[in-house]
Design brief:
Layout (H helix, E strand, L loop, with lengths): L12 H4 L5 E9 L5 H22 L2 E9 L11 E7 L2 H10 L12 H9 L8 E8 L23 H10 L2 E8 L7 H11 L3 E4 L5 H21 L1 H14 L3 H14 L3 E5 L8 H5 L7 H9 L20 E6 L2 H15 L1
Parallel strand pairs: 1-2, 1-4, 4-5, 5-6
Antiparallel strand pairs: 2-3, 7-8
Helix pairs in contact: 2-3, 2-7, 4-5, 5-6, 8-9, 9-12
């Protein structure tokens, strides 16, 4: 249906050179002591993940891995360990097999360092670019309680600034949040994903990791194709919206109306427990840096509860193949449109 959409030609080289069948996918994994079951799940299922994506989406796929732990003296093994893109599944599997869960020291970990290394990978210019961050702990400089580096990353890296740079490079961030440990920081991680037009996916069952990665990647490819086909319509409507001075929520609604009016369908992964909170979208994602984020985080009422309950071990994450584009997806498409405009 989407392929039949008639659009006008508008000079937009970023989109014109984009090819949704070319996929660069990086895993950024917390490799500290509590993450063993997720490392094992990724290792055991990486071949089936790639095979299903290749067969279903006809993708030319490359894989990369960034492992992170923490800075000395909290951890003396490594801060990050980077494996750049490969087209060989066996090579990626070998990297994962060498990845072990140990160390970590205090609660926060080197999240900023792991994300920063993503920017230095050899991304293909015209690829769909997806980063999957798998974490159960916050970065340094967010929650002062039990943080050996309360002023933030010792290397001076700021995760907010890093994800904005990722967004400008058209890298979409999916955060797989290991719950319950990450629940107090859920809104923070949601805001990181939101900035890039990605998703936060809460998990309590490591065995479902492959299903989340396959579903998330296939949905992302679907949205990229829709953006390609509706490029001129979105450009035109957003130019009108900016001239009228409407807010982001209204802009996302207008994008949704474009797809609804043409009955354009998309893939959707069930992720009801990961729905973006208003705190993440309207407050945290607007912070200029981690200093401002820390102030907002510390002033949050202690009674604040997550917008959605934790998922159960039986959460499905099923991929629905033919659904109307929903408001959540339209909001993410607006974020991507904004990033590609820069």
């Amino acid at each position: 249906m989407a392929a039949a959409l008639k659009t006008e030609k508008i000079d937009r080289p970023e989109l014109a050179k984009h090819d949704s069948t070319i996929l660069d996918l990086v895993f950024v994994m917390d490799c500290t002591g509590s993450m063993g079951s997720y490392i094992a799940s990724a290792t055991n299922s990486i071949r089936s993940i790639v095979e299903e994506i290749v067969v279903s989406e006809k993708s030319d796929i490359r894989l990369a891995l960034v492992e992170y732990r923490d800075h000395p003296p909290q951890d003396t093994t490594f801060v990050t360990r980077v494996h750049d893109f490969t087209a060989k599944v066996s090579e990626m599997k070998g990297w994962l097999e060498q990845c072990s869960a140990q160390g970590g020291g205090d609660g926060p970990e080197a999240v900023a360092d792991g994300l920063h290394d993503v920017l230095k990978l050899t991304w293909r210019e015209n690829s769909t670019k997806i980063c999957v961050l798998i974490s159960d702990a916050p970065p340094h400089g967010l929650d002062l309680s039990g943080d050996s580096f309360p002023n933030g990353c010792p290397a001076g890296l700021d995760p907010l600034k890093i994800v904005r740079e990722m967004a400008e490079k058209h890298i979409t961030l999916y955060v797989v949040g290991v719950e319950p440990p990450i629940v107090p920081y859920r809104d923070f991680f949601m805001s990181l994903a939101y900035i890039t037009g990605g998703q936060y996916v809460p998990m309590v069952n490591a065995k479902l990791l492959s299903k989340v990665i396959i579903g998330g990647v296939r949905e992302e490819i679907s949205l990229d194709r829709l953006m390609q086909d509706a490029q001129a319509d979105i450009d035109r409507e957003m130019q009108r919206a900016e001239a009228e001075g409407v807010d982001e929520k209204e802009k996302a609604k207008r994008i949704n109306n474009i797809f609804a009016s043409k009955n354009i369908r998309a893939k959707q992964m069930k992720n009801e427990h990961g729905a973006m909170s208003s705190l993440a979208k309207e407050s945290y994602s607007k912070c200029a840096d981690m200093s401002e984020m820390q102030m907002k985080f510390s002033s949050k009422p202690t009674s604040h509860a997550p917008a959605c309950a934790m998922p159960t071990a039986a959460a499905s994450y099923d991929l629905m193949e033919d659904e109307a584009v929903n408001e959540e997806q339209s909001s993410r498409i607006f974020q991507k449109w904004s990033n590609r405009k820069k």
